[in-house]
C-alpha cells in the first residue's frame, strides 16, 4: 500500500501549518484515505479551528478522498461537544467517512483498548460492501474479543446518573490539563522573560511538541532525569504543581 505524508506542524510557530497542509491535501485522489486527528492532536497538541475544518472538508470534497478521523481524546480539549465539532462537520459534508473513536482514555480503561469504528457510506451497496469487509477483518484479527471495556462504556452511557458522573469527572480531568498548560507557560514566561512558550497554553490534549532538538531531549534526560520521546513530545498529563517549576527550569537550562 502506497503511503504519503502531508505537512501539518509549523516548527517555528508551534501551530498548524495550515496553508501547507491544504496544498498537500490538494494532491489527494479519489479513493485515497486521508488520516486526520479529530481533536487534541498527538503528538503536537496543535489543532484545527472549526473554519479550518470547513476548508479541509472542501478540499476532500474536491479531490474525492476519504477521511479517516482518529478521535482518541474526545473531552480532553475543549469539551465533549466542541471536540467532536470538526468530525461532525466532515461527516455532514462528505458522502463517505471513516471514524475511529476510542474510549480507552476518556473512560480511563486504557488496558481494555475499547472503541468503535464508524463508517458513513453514500449508498446501500457501499454500506453492505464496507460491512462485509469489516466483518472479514474482524474475523481475521480477533473474531470475538473480550467485551469488558465495551460493557463498561455501554453501562455508563446508558444510565443518566452514571453518564452525568462520568462527564463531570472528564471535565475535571480536562480542566486540570488546561491548568497545567497555563501554569507551565506562565512559569516559562516568568523565568525566561519571553512569551515564546505561549503555545503550550494554546495547545489542547495530553501532548505538546516542545520543538527541542534530539540533542536537547538527550540533555533533559542525562542532566535532569526528564524523559520524553525524541521529537520532544511532552506529556502534559504527567505534570503536577510540584514538577511544573522543575520542568520549566530544566527546559531553559538545556537551551530550548
UniProtKB/TrEMBL annotation:
GO terms of molecular function: identical protein binding; L-aspartate:2-oxoglutarate aminotransferase activity; L-tyrosine-2-oxoglutarate transaminase activity; pyridoxal phosphate binding
UniProt protein name: Aromatic-amino-acid aminotransferase
InterPro entries: Aminotransferase_I/II_large, Asp_trans, PyrdxlP-dep_Trfase, PyrdxlP-dep_Trfase_major, PyrdxlP-dep_Trfase_small
Family per record: Belongs to the class-I pyridoxal-phosphate-dependent aminotransferase family.
Entry's Gene Ontology BP terms: L-phenylalanine biosynthetic process from chorismate via phenylpyruvate
Chain ranges of the Aminotransferase class I/classII large domain: 3-251
Sorted UniProt keywords: Aminotransferase, Pyridoxal phosphate, Transferase
Source organism of the structure: Frigidibacter mobilis
Names of required cofactors: pyridoxal 5'-phosphate
Amino acid at each position: 500500500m502506497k503511503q504519503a505524508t502531508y505537512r501539518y506542524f509549523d516548527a517555528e510557530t508551534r501551530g498548524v501549518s495550515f496553508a501547507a497542509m491544504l496544498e498537500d491535501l490538494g494532491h489527494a485522489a479519489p479513493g485515497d484515505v486521508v488520516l486526520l486527528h479529530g481533536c487534541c492532536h498527538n503528538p503536537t497538541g496543535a489543532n484545527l479551528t472549526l473554519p479550518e475544518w470547513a476548508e479541509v472538508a472542501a478540499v476532500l470534497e474536491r479531490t474525492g478522498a476519504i477521511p479517516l478521523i482518529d478521535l482518541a481524546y474526545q473531552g480532553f480539549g475543549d469539551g465533549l461537544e466542541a471536540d467532536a465539532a470538526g468530525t461532525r462537520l466532515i461527516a455532514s459534508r462528505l458522502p463517505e467517512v471513516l471514524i475511529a473513536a476510542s474510549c480507552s482514555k476518556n473512560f480511563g480503561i486504557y488496558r481494555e483498548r475499547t472503541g468503535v469504528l464508524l463508517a458513513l457510506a453514500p449508498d446501500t451497496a457501499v454500506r453492505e460492501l464496507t460491512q462485509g469487509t469489516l466483518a472479514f477483518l474482524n474475523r481475521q484479527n480477533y473474531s470475538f474479543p473480550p467485551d469488558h471495556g465495551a460493557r463498561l462504556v455501554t453501562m455508563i452511557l446508558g444510565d443518566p446518573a452514571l453518564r452525568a458522573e462520568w462527564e463531570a469527572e472528564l471535565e475535571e480531568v480536562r480542566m486540570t490539563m488546561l491548568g497545567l498548560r497555563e501554569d507551565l507557560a506562565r512559569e516559562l514566561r516568568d523565568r525566561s522573560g519571553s512569551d515564546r512558550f505561549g503555545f503550550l497554553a494554546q495547545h489542547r490534549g495530553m501532548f505538546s511538541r516542545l520543538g527541542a532538538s534530539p540533542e536537547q531531549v538527550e540533555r533533559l534526560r542525562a542532566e535532569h532525569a526528564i524523559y520524553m520521546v525524541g521529537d520532544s513530545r511532552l506529556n502534559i498529563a504527567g505534570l503536577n504543581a510540584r514538577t511544573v517549576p522543575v520542568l520549566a527550569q530544566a527546559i531553559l537550562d538545556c537551551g530550548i
